Every structure is written in C-alpha cells, then in structure tokens.
Amino acid sequence: MSAKRVVTFTVNGDQVEILCEPRQSLLEVLRDDLDLTGTKEGCSNGNCGACTVIMDGRPVVSCLVLAVEAEGAELRTIEGVACGSTLDEVQAAFLEGAALQCGICTPGIIVQTEALLEENPNPTEDDVRFYLAGNLCRCTGYDKIVRAVQAAAEKRQVAASN
Amino acid sequence: MHAFDYQSPSTVAEAIELMAKHNGSARPLAGGTDLIDQMRVGRLAPDVLIDVKKLDELNVLSADAAGLHVGAAVPCYRIYGDETVNSQYTALADSCHIIGGIQIQSRASIGGNLCNSGPAADSTPSMIALGGVCVIAGPSGSREIAVESFCTGPGKNVLEPGELLVEVRFPARPANSGSHYRRMIPRNEMDIAVVGVGASVTLDDSGQNFVSARIGLGAIAATPLFAEAAGESLAGQPVNDESLEKAAAAAREIASPITDMRGTREYRIHVTGVLVKRVLQAAIVRARGEQIDYCRGH
Question: Which of A21, A124, B119, B181 ranks highest by number of CB atoms within 10 Å?
Fold first, then answer.
C-alpha cells in the first residue's frame, strides 16, 4: 500500500533523484540516502531545530517534512554553506567566538542564521533570539551564539559596503 | 512511523473524493507540523495522507468586498508577511508570529491549527475575535460555520469524514477598529499558552466609546471559547477602566480551565481577567490608529 516512489529535488544546487517511502522524513533521506550527515537529528518532533534546512527559501525542520513533499523543491543544507574549503562569515564567526561546545545544534543554528541574515541583514539581539528560538543548545547558554550571529552580520555589512 | 500512502491531488474536488473514499482513514496534510509528529508517536495512524497544501483554494490570501480570505493551508509566515493582515487583521498576525518557532511558521497553517482543535491553539482566539467563518467543502457540497462553533472538544471538531476546511473568511473591518492577541507563558517564546486572549474592538469616531467588541479565549476550557457576553458588555460603553473590568469579569465567568503543569484553575481564571484587559487596551490603541508598545513574544 505504500509503494516506494521517485522524488526529485535539488540539494545545494545539485539535482538528485531518490526512491523513498511516504513515511520517510526529509531528514532521514538527507542523512541515510544522500549521505548528507551534517544535518543532525535531535528530538524528531520539531522542537530542537537541529535538523533545520532551507526549503524553497524558508527554514524548516526536516524531521517534520516528508521526503515526498520535497518533490521539485530547492534545498540548502549545512553542506551548502561553505564555499569549497572556505567557511562563510557565519561559520567563521562561530569558530572565532567559540559559539559552540558539543556542536550537535551548530549545523541547524548556522542554517537558521543564514535564513535570518537573508531576511534581516542587521538584526538586533532581540531579533536574533527570537529567530533562533526554535534552535535549542544545551551547552553554550546562547550568549556566544547571539554575539557570533551579530558579528557575522556586521562582517557581511562591512563587506557589502566595500 | 507506520507505513501509509501519500496522495497529492490537484483539485479540491479530487481531494474530497479521496477523503470520502477512505472514509475516515485518510488525513489531509498541510504543513504537517502537528500531523507528522502525532503519527510518529503513534497517536494517529491514517492509511493515507492527502497533501492539500498545493491546492489553489487552500492557498488564497486576498482581500475583497467580502473581507479577507485565508486559505486553510497558507503558512504563518505568509499571513504575518501580508500587508492587509498587518494593518487590519493584526490579531491574526500577532498569533502567527508566536506559533512555534520560525521553522514551524514556514509550514504551519491556521487551517491546521484550527483542525487540530487544541484548546490552547494560538490562532483560534484571534479568528473568533475577528469574526472568522470556516468554509468547508464536502462530498455533499459546501457549508459554512463560525470559527467559535468549529471545535467540539480537545482534538475534536465538526468536520465529517470526507470534509475539508478550505478557507477561513473574515468580514471587512469597520473604521476605527483594532485587534490584538496575547498569551501568558512563563517563557519568552516557543511555549503553549497558559491562557490566550484575542480581542477586536470597534470605537466611535471620537475614539472614546465602544461600538462593538469580540473576545476569544484559549486554554481555559475544552475548546477555545467565544466570550460573547464579555464583548457585548462593551457595546455603547465609554472606554475606561470600569468597562474593561466588567468585560474581564464576564470573561472570567465563562472560564472553566483545568489544573495542569502549566497552571492551576484559579491561576488561569485570574490570568484570563488580566489578559482580557491588556489585550483590549492594546486593541483600543490600534483602533485609534496608534502603535502599541508590544514586543512579540514578550
């Protein structure tokens, strides 16, 4: 009754075609079929944000998306953030600001930050905290994350004005 | 997760046919933020998911002479990104801003929030306050029902097998109107309402007297409630503390909350009164065309 079906979408610019069951989440398919294990599984109920990816320009938790729903979608994952071996401003700011400890929430937080800065290039502390409210971190206490996001935003602003 | 089939119909008629064919064992899928979680934990086990979020009728977000049409599958971020909603149906934008986090708002819809029929749903009190009407399509045609009559119990509503919520329609806003939604939670964001209140007021031209008011309450009964008497008590009254206190008392009177980990019955009843006054005050400020001092989520 639940025959496998072919689903086609793009991930970080690459066209992919996979065979999946309707019950498979996008998270499962990204990690297990496409080997894109940078996206993490945390709670699997939409609370923690570790599995955040950008789908058609919007951040979503990939544990609450069925892979079959991604038919025709454009996806961006943590693997698509760096340019080759060069980290982007957000990744660099997280490293410089020591905005991570165990690191499991970090890919989701960086992807969510990319979505934030796309929408709001110059966020206030309150904007950052509100936008990242769906990403839980049990290590850092968030302050360093918020500062790293603002540092990345500033770096991009400076780069854009030069 | 259990095995199920997935269908993606291209018309409402086709969706209803599929829903009817599976006679209660199919569930419509919009943003999936409640449904997929409920399936993963085994609370729901439909044989078929019918993806309705790409249907044109469920994606409408437009205003005309009849008012505002919000398709049942329109995600929260589109609702609070809409100019008409922000300027005239502000309570709805307030609700959509605090349903889950940003990732949830990318997918979750007010149609899903309503059909999930949780007593603490954040958008339902706003829809009640704004006079929302549910447009339901089914095998035997369409019908309409007021939002306040839609939910019948926790997780239960008036939809019959084969029926689909297509849109919620809101009447055009009279001059000098304003609305607001606010909830009490012990955190700043990402929480379930201890109490939620949506209110809409219309003032006279002087801005000093109520013409009419509607108030919706969440998390204080088995379903979201329309505090009709509280709203009616304001009609024709001057805008002052005494009128607000009367409305708050009338709202407290219909609150029949449970005691749970989020708050006791007594606490929730008290907070209902406090929030009704605060939300009315904010709606009054907006009705006068002024900005309220409100930081979403705080």
Answer: B181
